[in-house]
């Protein structure tokens, strides 16, 4: 099963699922009851904001178009 989530990343949030320095990261904004592991597709800088896709599954760091064979 494929899962895609759209997330509007605010400024001062890491595009990461964990952060050893305890800065704000994506998992701080995901529902605690989310059973699937999702990962960001691409990344946004710490001090930028914008739409970010989160995806479950293999090749999670590829753009969806690349996965489907589009160029």
Please, could you describe this protein's structure?
There is one protein chain. This protein has one helix at residues 64-68; strands spanning 4-9, 39-41, 50-55. The two termini are 24 Å apart. β2 and β3 (50-55) form a beta hairpin. It has 1 helix and 3 strands, in the order βββα. The chain is mainly beta. 7% of the residues lie in helices and 21% in strands.
Please provide a brief summary of the model.
The chain is mostly beta strands.
Number of helices: 1
Placed side by side, the strands forming the largest sheet appear as 1-3-2
Shape, principal axes of CA atoms: globular
Strand content: 15-25%
Largest sheet: 3 strands, antiparallel
Total beta strand runs: 3
Q: What structural class do you assign from the helix and strand content? A: mainly beta
Radius of gyration: 12 Å
Helix content: under 10%
What's the helix-strand series? EEEH
Please state the average pLDDT score. Answer: 84
N- to C-terminal distance: 24 Å
Pick out the low-confidence regions. Answer: none
Keywords:
mainly beta, 3 strands, 21% strand, globular
Topology:
Blueprint: E1 4-9, E2 39-41, E3 50-55, H1 64-68
Antiparallel strand pairs: 1-3, 2-3
């Amino acid at each position: 099963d494929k899962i895609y989530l759209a997330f509007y990343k605010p400024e001062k949030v890491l595009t990461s699922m964990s952060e050893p320095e305890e800065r704000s990261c994506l998992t701080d904004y995901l529902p605690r009851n989310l059973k699937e592991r999702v990962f960001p597709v691409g990344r946004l800088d710490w001090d930028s904001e914008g739409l970010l896709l989160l995806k479950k599954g293999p090749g999670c760091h590829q753009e969806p178009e690349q996965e489907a064979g589009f160029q």
